[in-house]
Write a structure and sequence with these properties.
The longest helix has 27 residues, at 2-28. This protein has an 8-stranded mixed sheet, with helices on both faces. A two-stranded parallel sheet has the order 1-6. Helix 1 crosses helix 6 and helix 3 (120-134) crosses helix 4. The protein is globular. The chain has helices spanning 2-28, 85-93, 120-134, 147-153, 173-185, 193-204, 237-246, 264-268, 270-284; strands spanning 31-32, 45-50, 56-62, 70-74, 97-101, 106-107, 140-145, 163-167, 224-229, 251-256. It has a single domain, classed as Alpha/Beta hydrolase fold, catalytic domain (Rossmann fold). Strand 4 (70-74), helix 2 (85-93) and strand 5 form a beta-alpha-beta unit. The chain starts with a helix and ends with a helix. The chain is an alpha/beta fold and 285 residues long.
Length: 285
């Protein structure tokens, strides 16, 4: 009887280890996919921005009015540039040029692992450098959603942007993972937190605190608009407020009533466009 008990316990332990390893693999595994071409109603130029000898950032460029400003659009996790298309359309109608990119290991940009903004930040740096070289007289802004927002904040070198919009951004990777464990596994889900964080550190080969946007958001030397949903259980309002407190002035915050952790443009529609337009007009024109 005792023998079978220990066999059962060992089997449960092995199964738990397999699940944890699987979680780490799923969280960091690439989300590569072909990106559909667009119809002629929104003409774009395909671009490939070199990163190194073996890799480049894939994206679309739509030119705007001269001296109208350029906006870099950076998507969320396990998505691609298509997620930002509705924003690109409305901004381009306002006269802004737009660049939509696929982050590494997403869409058509190659990469082995998702790194929660750490290595994706090099894609953002390359995209900003490309825009500065291509449009040297234009003022530049960036809009990032979740992973895209983290990639902007975690850039190792100053992006020297004229405005930044961050949507649905987590302050720390620990809180981001804990919130998702609660959502998917219930109140006891966070008991797995230390094991999941250890898996992420192993797969990404970095100290886990290097993935925390709150430690870097104060380095953003640009006017900031921080956006979050009041009903977001992935990144809760108090977490957003901590991020806002850590950021430099000038800064604004907009907590969208009733919104969760999803596309703010789709949810808030006209109000989103008005707020983004007012913010960008103030700082890019």
């Amino acid at each position: 009887m005792r023998r079978w008990f220990f066999i059962g316990m060992l089997s449960c332990l092995i199964a738990m280890i397999a699940v944890i390893i699987g979680i780490g693999e799923v969280m960091t595994g690439p989300a590569s996919t072909a990106v559909e071409s667009l119809s002629s109603d929104f003409p774009v130029e395909p671009v490939q921005i070199p990163l190194n000898a073996d890799s480049s950032v894939h994206g679309w460029l739509a030119r705007g009015a001269r001296s109208g400003g350029i906006v870099l659009l950076v998507h969320s996790i396990r998505s691609n540039r298509l997620e930002m298309l509705s924003r690109a359309r409305f901004l381009n109608r306002q006269g802004y040029g737009v660049l939509l990119i696929d982050l590494q290991a997403h869409g058509e940009t190659p990469g082995k692992r998702i790194t929660f903004g750490l290595r994706e930040s090099t894609d953002v740096e390359a995209a900003v450098a490309f825009l500065k070289k291509t449009f040297p007289s234009e003022r530049l802004a960036a809009i990032g959603v979740s992973l895209g927002a983290a990639a902007i904040v975690l850039a190792k070198h100053s992006l020297k942007l004229d405005a930044v919009v961050l949507e649905s951004l987590h302050p720390t990777i620990e809180e981001a993972v804990e919130n998702r464990l609660k959502l998917h596994l219930g109140e006891y889900g966070p008991v797995l937190l230390p094991l999941v964080l250890a898996q992420l550190a192993f797969y990404l080969d970095v100290p886990i605190d290097e993935l925390d946007p709150i430690t870097r958001i104060g380095d953003l030397n640009a006017p900031l608009l921080l956006i979050a949903g009041s009903a977001d259980e992935h990144t809760k309002v108090p977490e957003t407020e901590r991020l806002f407190a850590a950021a430099r002035q000038p800064k604004e915050i907009w907590i969208v009533p009733g919104a969760g952790h999803f596309n703010m443009h789709s949810y808030a529609g006209r109000e989103y466009e008005e707020r983004i337009s007012d913010f960008l007009d103030q700082h890019l024109r």
